[in-house]
Amino acid sequence: MAGCGEVKVPVPGRPMIHDCAITDSKVLILDLPVQFNLEAAMEGVSIPYEWDADYQARIGVLAHEGDPDDVVWCNIDPCFVFHPLNAYDAADGTIIADVVRHPRMFAGRTSLPSGGKPSLVRWVIDPATGSVTESVLSDVPQEFPRVDERVVGKKHRYGYGVYSSKESTYAGAIKHDLEAGTSEWRRYGPGRTCQEPVFVPRHATAEEDDGWLLAYVHNEATGTTDIEVWESPQLHRRAARAGSS
To answer: Would the pLDDT of 57 be above 90?
Structure first.
């Protein structure tokens, strides 16, 4: 980054920027319609943010060595993103970003997330034109996406996360093969909830997805938590095309 390593990028509102995405050459800034609300904070709302339907959602593209004036802003449809899966530079100059997209968030004076079913989508960002195209990779409700840490900012094939069911927000682990267009689930059953899985490679030079997934699994009946470890290729109890549930 320029100067001492910190760049302050001005934005027109007071957005919640929960996370960002990086590539080998760029940082993606998520300037989205969830805005800080002082009145809510004064009322004691624990998360004093609200959905602002009039705020333009956009993605800022900033080179690693860039300054605030170098940010390229690309408008997108209203949404909110807590967590990107990953992003990378494409050979044609565009940027590929896979994110968990919420249609809205914190809609109304509440500290609880609200606003519709999240899905895993792909943004193709073109800084040359300021355009963004979006496609759905999986419409299974999910959150806490992760990749093999060795491919952060680089092209990835696999992604991992936590999926939701009608019975539980954190029903189990999900794995996506984005090249094959398939998804696999590991279900834990009633009263057991899964936290975000972390991928551990079998060894330093192992192929992507050759290793283990680790996740905390909480048992509500006993009040205990297990650390489950399984080989990633053996994750599935059910496999289906991405977009099924």
So the answer is: yes
Three-state SS for the chain is CCCCCCCCCCCCCCECCCCCEECCCEEEEEECCEEECHHHHHCCCCCCEEECCCCCCEEEEEECCCCHHHCEEEECCCCECCCEEEEEECCCCCEEEEEEEECCCCCCCCCCCCCCCCEEEEEEEECCCCEEEEEEEECCCEEEEECCHHHCCCCCCEEEEEECCCCCCCCEEEEEECCCCEEEEEECCCCEEECCCEEEECCCCCCCCCEEEEEEEEECCCCEEEEEEEEHHHCCCEEEECCCC
Flag whether the pTM goes above 0.70.
Answer: yes
Single-letter amino acid code for the residue at 15: P
Mean model confidence pLDDT for the chain: 88
61-115: per-residue pLDDT in tens?
999 999 999 999 999 999 999 999 999 999 999 999 999 999 999 886 555 556 6
φ, ψ dihedrals at 233, nearest 5°: -65, -15
